[in-house]
Design goal:
31 helices, alpha/beta, 949 residues, 2-oxoglutarate dehydrogenase E1 component, Rossmann fold
Length: 949
């Protein structure tokens, strides 16, 4: 070590405080050349953390320098100093690895592993050193303790009922905060008698409800919480503490296990209501309804900070799919309360161990947690870890990671493993987890290790696949009994008091009342934002979507005004200049301008707009340009202008988000947002239409069926680019057939607008109508800049969205012998082909709304051609896809006597479209030729004989 460095060590102004050394060491780890040669030399010389060469722990660094300073100044016993460094390594070893030997499993099935790094002998520290006093370094304790005392503190904190994982967190203050909370109390809760009585009361309620239902409704599925009973006091404590910290709303997402218990013992649902559901009572207004353990509920709970509104989200059987839905609902509620920091509304997500490790939507939702468009100020994750999942034999079959919670490490979320049989420890960790979330605005995980007393459901026999585990479970007296016995031994309660609690709760159950949670009960109803909106099946209420010419032109000027000294990319500059001409009426409007005007008019009428998707700011097809980027910017996060945010002083919020590369989680988030905020136009755009395949669970289980199952209305808009242009199987079809298959009960709207004006009126109609239903829009690609598809300004100032558009050319009505019906881009192909062929006896009708089908409007078009004897449905998609199989039944209803219905389409195919451009062109030509064939002989149709006919 250099003389200069030794002089530094003796300088009293450099007494190497922990923050100073930590900062230097952090810099060194990122870039070794960022520190001086002397410091780098010392850091290089530090011994590796272990033989595997994993990350060097930080905390011994500062202490080592203190020792070096002391050694230079006073030359103490070098052997003692060597052992001092080893003590600091032992401390950090417990911070990293203590959970490996922690008492986490209530069943204690397996012997604890041998972890050499936790043994003092591993560092040459012997029994003779136990009474030697050492510096404690960064340990939250007295500055000097005996090795015995240090070891006792470490084992109590990190090797008892709590196993903490947080040392991988890159932010040092967060690590220090966690150490203060854990080490400061040695992992011990220290609750008073009243608090522990409340815990026992909640445990009693949890266990007794399950056993009561088990005997009263024998064999009925309920997905019992038994074995994980501590979840109920955990949630109770979490919500009470949250309310005390000023939280006004909490949204809970969970799968089925324990849901009935949470409904009754946390949200205060009356047992009589639950019993009625077991006996078959159901909501008459829901055409489908859902099982008990999928139902949502909400209530106002009294806390020290006042009323806390708690909503339990409705959830289908797809486990973790509710996660992003909850996050979206929370974000909407935060927006409504102007809760920019996420301090007033919090998300709470309950997970199963196998699901947390196995479901991809968990990772996608975690990945959203700190992004600008989706963050909610941190989520409290609670894993009900019954160590079994469904029926898998052991952890080797359900994950590849050591712990089920490991995926959370990717976002630096701290993970607190805790033994569910130690309710006091669970409550302590619950406090730390919530406080961490409120302090740092980040996700945190509680992994409550427990067991599952019964099978996956009450009709399942777990011994078939789990004989070893269930021998231990059969011998376990239950968490309530274990805790009650502990309280008796410690003199907190009298013998027999626990049994009296059971009797009292059972009596309340017999009377159908809730004795534990006197919440202000109310079933999940629309929040105030839903006032004035109607339910029912009235999807076609007419509304005026026109806008005056003066207003459109004024908004158009604002949308095309470039800020001073702001340089647009040359192609964008040309687009903006053209749009300026469109606003003046000098050019017809394209799709991008029409869409931006639709948003602008809504924003200035009091409707916020939220648009997200992969590259939605610019638009996948370089068409939207809702976000402008200054080409001269020198700082990456500056030089961005969003014209739709600068329309007027009192306009509503416009948010456009270039989302992470996720469909499932992002679409789930937007669904949750739309259900909680009906007066915001919420849109999600797929990069290509069939990319929505990755979110099919959200579409099936929420968007299409949420209303008939749970009565949940939603005005979410899905924009799905669709059109056959030779781009291959995955870039052509938005899978129209899938959405039409889901259509029933007037649940969704499926539209294929063919002009910019149609898109303008469609988007405005979505918000101006007095109801909310999901809107699926198949948007174009090549038509985005097509002059054929452009719309004059007069189409915006007059008219409305037309579900059916009739013939646009002056054909002799009495000479028309064939009606060709179609949707989307193929209309322009048909129109151009008819002009080229000089055909005058075939009319082309566009069906712009495929569902709900506009029967009256279509019937009027058919009636306009009294001499037509033929009808052809023409589509670009193969016969087993597209709208044909659904549309034919609607078309048939309007055929006159003797009128024939046939089709023109691609041959049935396993893939949505041809991958070879030559094949695509050949097929496209054949489809158009088939639509205009002289007769309806099916043998002349390309692909005839395939299964689609």
């Amino acid at each position: 070590m250099s003389t200069h460095f030794n002089q530094m060590m003796q300088d009293s102004s450099l007494l190497f405080a922990a923050p100073f050394v930590e900062e230097l060491y952090e810099q060194y780890l990122i870039d070794p050349d960022s520190v001086t040669d002397e410091w780098r030399g010392y850091f290089d010389a530090l011994p590796p953390w272990n033989k595997a060469g994993s990350e060097q722990p930080h905390s011994p660094v500062q202490n080592a320098f203190e020792l070096m300073h002391a050694s230079v100044a006073a030359a103490p016993d070098m052997e003692h100093e060597r052992k001092q460094v080893k003590v600091l390594q032992l401390i950090n070893a417990h911070r990293f690895l203590g959970l490996r030997v922690a008492n986490l499993d209530p069943l204690a099935r397996h012997a604890k592993p041998v972890v050499p790094e936790l043994d003092p002998a591993h560092y040459g520290l012997l029994e003779s050193d136990m009474n030697t006093i050492f510096e404690t370094g960064s340990l939250v304790a007295a500055a000097r303790l005996t090795l015995r005392e240090i070891l006792q503190l470490l084992r109590q904190t990190y090797c008892g009922s709590i196993g903490a994982e947080y040392m991988y967190i890159s932010d040092v203050p967060q690590k220090r905060w966690i150490q203060n909370r854990l080490e400061g109390v040695r992992g011990l809760a220290g609750y008073d008698a009243a608090q522990r009585r409340r815990i026992l009361g909640r445990l009693t309620a949890a266990e007794t409800l399950e056993r009561y239902l088990h005997t009263k409704f024998v064999g009925q599925k309920r997905f019992s919480l038994e074995g994980g009973d501590t979840l109920v006091p955990l949630l109770d404590h979490l919500l009470q503490r949250a309310g005390g910290q000023g939280v006004k709303e909490a949204v809970i997402g969970m799968a089925h296990r324990g849901r009935l218990n949470v409904l009754v013992n946390i949200l205060g649902k009356q047992p009589s209501m639950l019993f009625a559901e077991f006996e078959g009572i159901h909501a008459e207004h829901l055409t489908s309804g859902d099982v008990k353990y999928h139902q949502g509920f909400s209530a106002d709970i009294e806390t020290a900070g006042g009323k806390l509104h708690v909503a339990l989200a409705f959830n289908p059987s797809h486990l973790e799919i509710v996660n992003p839905v909850v996050e979206g609902s929370v974000r909407a509620r935060q927006h409504r309360l102007k809760d920019l920091e996420g301090k007033k509304v919090i998300p709470i997500l309950l997970h199963g161990d196998a699901a947390f490790a196995g479901q991809g939507v968990v990772m996608e939702t975690l990945a959203m947690s700190q992004t600008r468009g989706y963050r909610t100020g941190g989520t409290v994750h609670i894993i009900i870890n019954n160590q079994i999942g469904f029926t898998a034999s052991d952890s080797r079959d359900v994950r590849s990671s050591q712990y089920c919670s490991d995926v959370a490490k990717m976002i630096d979320a701290p993970i607190f493993h805790v033994n569910g049989d130690d309710p006091d420890a669970v409550m302590l960790i619950t406090e730390i987890a919530l406080d961490y979330r409120m302090q740092f605005g980040r996700d945190v995980v509680i992994d409550m290790v427990c067991f599952r007393k019964l099978g996956h459901n009450e009709q399942d026999e777990p011994l078939v696949t789990q004989p070893f585990m269930y021998r231990f479970i059969r011998q376990h007296p239950g968490t309530r009994a274990v805790y009650a016995e502990r309280l008796v031994k410690e003199g907190v309660i009298e013998a027999g008091e626990g049994e009296a609690m059971i009797a009292s709760y059972r009596q309340a159950m017999d009377e159908g009342r809730n004795s534990i949670q006197p919440a202000i009960e109310k079933a999940e109803k629309p929040v105030s934002s839903w006032s004035g909106l109607k339910t029912g099946t009235k999807w076609n209420t007419p509304v005026d979507t026109t806008v005056s010419l003066a207003r459109l032109q004024q908004l158009g000027r604002v949308l095309t005004t470039i800020p001073d000294n702001f340089i647009l990319q040359s192609r964008v500059q040309k687009i903006v200049e053209d749009r300026s001409a469109m606003a003046r009426g000098e050019l017809s409007l394209d799709w991008g301008m029409a869409e931006n005007l639709a948003y602008a008019t809504l924003l200035t009428e009091g409707y916020p707009v939220r648009l997200s998707g992969q590259d939605s700011g610019r638009g996948t097809f370089f068409h939207r340009h809702a976000t402008w980027h200054d080409q001269n910017r020198v700082v990456w996060h500056e030089g961005i202008h969003i014209p739709l945010q600068h329309l007027a002083q009192n306009q509503s919020d416009f948010v456009v988000i270039d989302s992470l590369l996720s469909e499932e989680a992002v679409l789930g988030f937007e669904y949750g947002y739309a259900t909680a905020e009906p007066n915001t136009l919420v849109l999600w755009e797929a990069q290509f239409g069939d990319f929505a395949n990755g979110a099919q669970v959200v579409i099936d289980q929420f968007i299409a069926s949420g209303e008939v199952k749970w009565g949940r209305l939603c005005g979410l808009v899905m924009l799905l680019p669709h059109g056959y242009e030779g781009q291959g199987a995955e870039h052509s079809s938005g899978r129209i057939e899938r959405y039409l298959q889901l259509c029933a009960d007037y649940n969704i709207q499926v539209c294929v607008p063919s002009t910019p004006a149609q898109m303008f009126h469609l988007l405005r109609r979505q918000m101006l109508r007095p109801t909310r239903r999901p809107l699926i829009v198949f948007t174009p690609k090549s038509l985005l800049r097509s002059k054929d598809a452009a719309s004059p300004l007069t189409d915006f100032t007059d008219g409305s969205f037309r579900a059916v558009i009739g013939e646009v050319e002056a054909l002799a009505v009495d000479k028309v012998r064939r009606i060709i019906a179609c949707s989307g881009k193929v209309y322009y192909d048909l129109l151009n082909a008819r002009r080229a062929k000089g055909i005058e006896d075939m009319a082309i009708i566009r069906i712009e709304q495929l569902y709900p089908f506009p029967h009256e409007a279509f019937a009027a078009q058919v009636a306009a051609y009294p001499n037509a004897t033929e009808m052809v449905w023409c589509q670009e998609e193969p016969g087993n896809q597209g709208a044909w199989h659904r549309i034919q039944h609607y078309l048939s209803r309007h055929l006159r006597q003797g009128m024939r219905l046939e089709y023109a389409l691609r041959p049935s195919s396993a893939a949505p479209a041809a991958g070879y451009l030559a094949v695509h062109n050949e097929q496209q030509k054949a489809v158009i030729e088939a639509a205009f064939r002289p007769d309806l002989d099916i043998k002349n149709i390309p692909g005839a004989g395939h299964e689609h006919h």
